[in-house]
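FORM 7B: Structural annotation worksheet

SECTION A. Query
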Amino acid sequence: MIRSRIQSLLFLTMALAIAGCGSSPKKPQPAALAPFSPSLAATVAWKADVGKSVRVGSGIGQFSPAVDGDSAYAASTSGMISRVSLADGRLVWKTDAEAPLVAGVAVGRGASRGMAAALTAKGELVLINPDGKLLRRINLGGVALETPVFADGVVVVRMADNRVAGWDVQTGERRWILQRTLPPLVLHGQSGMRVRALEPEESTADALDTSDVLVNMPGGRLLWLNGTTGALRWESQVAAPRGSNEVERLVDLLGSAAVDGRDVCVAAYQTQVSCLAGDTGRRLWSRDIVASTPVAADSRFVIVADDQSRLHALSRKDGSPVWSIDTFQLRGLTTPVSLGRAVWVADSLGVLHAVSREDGKLLARITLDGGTVSGPVRPLRQGLLVQTQGGQLMLIRIDG
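SECTION B. Predicted structure
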């Protein structure tokens, strides 16, 4: 009798548990892609296999391609660095850094034109000459997770402990170092640096000289410095931490700053979007947005995605809202870029979307071979240069 009652009770408990599971609310799903009639043609001109890269947001820096003249450069997690022809994707050379890499490749400018640099998981800066030969390995004396940049004959690296330092490419000696206090909690591998664009990049960053470096920092700080000497032009506290715990007080500046004309625009994680005067660092305007991506900026708009993958366009002049769309709700949008009449943004499901700069209407869509992007898409005069986590580097040509 007792045994029968126990069995009945167990049966009832299991039934209630199953019923409870069935009635629990479903996890929100990414928005389905609605059919539409494309008004902008986007086609893959060429593809090249450059090796797989880690997932974005895993605490390791992003793997984004670089360009210089008639060549594109890309790095893989395994340590391979490739140079390919921008015209047809033909491999020019491939070099093994002999260690896993933690961020994508940088290419030289000024006195270091034609060189390439990458960071290894061993805390080394690897320099490669224009012929693809390993020039030198520099022990950084710490961890670095973000793509380095060149400033004339100096390679600038932001360390994970909030040091920024410059190394001479010819001697391998450290020229200068700048230290800032590290907040208790940071988004490792999520801040970045900006330098003047090289041809044939599609950029209006004419305010930057070949020696200028804009550094986005954890804790909401933005630095404009001379990369050859480390001298500060200005430093601005863009966003101030606020909240009841360390997570809520995260205000790290995301990715690289966007430069258009004389203005510098940035997004602070979960806090705001701001534009500052390039000559002084004075704040021109700020808009509260729960930002999750770096911004794109052009002569009229500042574009950013929020934590729900809603895409927002703000006026470059004063930050007032222009349009906002939830077409890509929860699809995990990456850094948007503005090119031609469209804003281009990839999602975490491996689809690249184009929406109108004027009103956010969908113009084009292309599924990427190799899955989602491994870092920001690179806008070029020839189209879009895209590197995927699956190891594909591709040039997407745009017509219309």
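SECTION C. Observations
The radius of gyration is 23 Å. The chain is about 5% helix and 40% strand.

SECTION D. Sign-off
Analyst initials: ____
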